[in-house]
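Complex 249.
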Amino acid sequence: MGIILEHLLNVKDQKGAGYLVLIDPDKQDIESASKLASLSAEADVDALLVGSSFLMSDKFDPMVQSIKQASGLPVIISPGASNHISRYADAILFLSLISGRNPEFLIGEHVKAAPMIKRYGIEAIPTGYMLIEGGICTSVQFISATMPIPRDKTDIAVAHAIAGELLGMKMIYLECGSGAVQSVPNEIISAVKEQITIPLIVGGGIVNPKEAGEKVRAGADFIVTGNVLEKSGNASLMREFASVIHSTI
Ligand code: 1GP
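Predicted structure with SN-glycerol-1-phosphate bound:
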């Protein structure tokens, strides 16, 4: 097992659940991203995710390097496509968009990215990425040209997650998409959690610590927030998220 996946599993064992902060290179410049990264380290965040659905920034590589230096935290790419690779990252969520039926996001982008990931020695964490309907058409839905799983189709979500685990994925990521107006329903989280043995990441549209705590109680092993901190860079809110997520179970 790679050291970053091991770190994540240790976090889950020791703290009950982990807190991941997503830095979107299209919404930050290097300076503000580095500030967010160093605040994250002070606020007991467990790792940083970096990525977006549609990378417009030409500063991905230096940004990953800067947030790594500023935080000392594990930096994990959460890619939207095969060009979202940086030699400075510790790991990459090797996301397969299993809720969709677009071959590019099931295997095509992976083939394009694989040689570079290998060359740089970046730890790849095979992850089943499941888009759940979140009240708006998010960038990930539009860019991937896939249909999210309807919020009331819990059984369909569960079947996808089981399939992901049976295919050998190491984590399942339930995602409503950045800026979603509704986060992943707790019913889906608990039903999926009951049927899989691999860790469960939940993100998209989580706007306050209380909501994050509910997701952990429902079965989330890792919570991801992006927008809510990017807008405010609010250190005390970040600490509140971390303490609720780490103390909920
Ligand atoms: C993590 O994509 C998300 O899964 C981030 O979503 O920006 O809505 O927090 P938010």
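The chain has a mean pLDDT of 96.
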